[in-house]
Write a structure and sequence with these properties.
With 393 residues, this protein is an alpha/beta fold. Helices cover 36% and strands 30% of the residues. The chain has eleven helices and 21 strands.
Length: 393
């Protein structure tokens, strides 16, 4: 049987970052990942990082590519009533920013430093079960290269996403699940087209939400509200561009640029939290514990916030024999996460069209948008949340 201090399930950003943080403190870990290495490296996800996430990556030695490739963002252009309503969150937050830096680049950075340090990452190794979580030595059972293996550890970090095995290892009567599935999805498009303006752009249109975000100076990521079970095959390139122009173009601003569409897919949307985020010697982090709708760009950032707390908690345990951080991990993360859900779900409700909404509800959405973009208090609240709530670690 293999042995380590911290067994990490999942080699996404959360699992890789936790392994890196522990390594910097001389704490051993092994990562077990169900997918192949190339798949992990190439998974495409959202790409807006909060101020705190950027600072965290710089602090742990990942500044070089971020400083060279990440695009600092200062404002978000909300478009409704055929007008641009630019919200400068950099100014409203007292100088905090967000950065366009795709998740696969974050993963690439973390994989590189872990490989350079000789980290033990077992790819293509699905976990079958986790035993002994309420004892002193949990055991993770997994398959690798056609053989069954077991990893004994002091603690388990469940960083394997919403559909991973970690959360399912917790008895159902020990969990409270809070879930909302939204009656729409996003058609995501990656296009070889330079951004028309340098601000993230949201179209809050009567026919549905749309968004333009920046991947690189030559590539844009675009989204269209659609049916949750829609198929990308229903969307020709001509239909996509027509809807994007209708929902995003406004008077006084350049129209969005068209280009070759290189990727398209439909993503369903939900809000989800499980409580608590700890069971015995297992700690859930990131999507294994919570999902947010993508409107607020909080998925990756929330996972990194969890890991900052969990990393500190494990260091306090191993270096100072202080259990208080581990004991408070779930409450600390959940207190912040419910505020993140409030922001993300509130934005989701504000900018999307819901089936059956009345004219009154539509006017209330516009009133909320006007308050958020047109008042000092509204801009400050958005900026505070969008650039990232503090992490108490």
């Amino acid at each position: 049987m293999m042995r380590t201090q911290v067994g990490i399930i999942g080699a996404g950003p959360a699992g890789l970052m936790l392994s890196h943080l522990l390594h910097l403190e001389g704490i051993e870990s092994v990562i077990i990942e169900r997918s192949e290495q190339d798949h992990v490296r190439s998974r495409l996800r959202a790409g807006v990082l909060e101020q705190g996430t950027i600072e965290m990556m710089r602090e742990v030695g990942l500044a070089e590519r971020i400083d060279r490739l990440a695009l600092e963002q200062h404002a978000l252009d909300f478009r409704f009533n055929n007008r641009s309503h630019r919200l400068d969150f950099h100014e409203a937050s007292g100088g905090r920013s967000a950065w366009a830096y795709p998740q696969h680049e974050v993963v690439a950075d973390l994989m590189r430093v872990r490989e350079e340090a000789g980290a033990q990452i077992l790819y293509d190794s699905p976990v079958s079960r986790i035993e002994g979580l309420e004892g002193d030595r949990p055991v993770i059972h997994f398959e690798s290269e056609g053989k069954q293996h077991a990893l004994s550890c002091d603690f388990v970090a469940g960083c394997d996403g919403f559909r991973g095995i970690s959360r399912t290892a917790i008895p159902s009567h020990k969990l409270a699940l809070y879930d909302r599935v939204y009656p729409f999805g996003w058609l995501g498009i990656l296009a070889d087209a330079p951004p028309a303006i340098q601000d993230i752009t949201w179209g809050c249109h009567a026919d549905g939400f749309a968004m333009m975000s920046i991947r690189t100076p030559e590539v844009t990521r675009l989204y269209l509200q659609c049916e949750p079970d829609d198929s990308p095959d229903n969307w020709s390139d001509d239909r996509i561009w027509a809807e994007l122009h209708k929902r995003l173009d406004v008077d006084g601003q350049p129209p969005i640029n068209e280009g070759r569409i290189t990727q398209k897919g439909v993503t369903a949307m939900r809000s989800f939290i499980c409580e608590p985020m700890r069971f015995g010697r297992m700690f859930l982090a990131g999507d294994a514990a919570h999902i947010v709708p993508p409107t607020g760009a909080k998925g990756l950032n929330s996972a990194m916030a969890d890991i900052k707390v969990l990393g500190r908690s494990l260091v306090e345990h191993y270096k100072r024999n202080d259990q208080r951080w581990l004991d408070n991990y779930s409450d600390t993360c959940l207190e912040r996460m419910w505020l993140v859900q409030r922001f993300s779900a509130g934005l989701c409700t504000m900018v999307h069209q819901f089936p059956g909404d009345s004219d009154f509800q539509r006017r209330m959405q516009l009133a909320e948008l006007n308050y958020m973009t047109g008042t000092h208090e509204g801009r400050a609240a958005f900026a505070h949340n969008f650039t990232g709530l503090p992490v108490h670690a």
